Amino acid sequence: MKTARALLTGTLVWIFGVTAFTALYELPLMENRYAQANIGLALLVPPLVWFASQIYYRKVKSTHGLKLGLLMLLASATLDALFTVPLLIIPFGGSYTSFFGSLDFWLIAFEFLLVSLIYWYIKVRPEQQQSI
After folding, report:
1. What is the spatial distance between Cα 125 and Cα 20, in angstroms, rounded to a whole number?
2. H-helix or E-strand containing 19?
3. Which end of the chain is less congested by CB atoms within 10 angstroms, N or C?
4. What angle do CA 68, 24, 10 make, to 5 degrees?
5. pLDDT category, 131, cuts 50, 70, 90?
6. Where are the domains of the chain?
7. What is the H or E stretch that residue 35 is in?
8. Cα(2)–Cα(7) distance, integer angstroms
């Protein structure tokens, strides 16, 4: 397992995710812009995690998809704690508790795990079974 590689791919997902969330928040499409940005992020996370998994598994084939998903989620959640919450949530009246305790956060976290696991079952595991 290449832990640094998994954390790097999680960081890439976080960068694109925060950028997309911020951009979607600024679009005047819905009255509730926070919900609008979260819906957009929930739709964007699966392809981002799929692409990050694809990048990770180019060189490493032995890591289980759930472990990869957990490491990518760890990187993303750590960056959320260090940057997203203090810079984008707290100034607008939120808190660490409101961010990490929200259902939105946990649904997106579940997407991280599920998509990386599905990628592993579809793309990586069949290759491992053929080489046996």
Report:
1. 31
2. helix 3-26
3. C
4. 15
5. low
6. 3-130
7. helix 33-56
8. 9
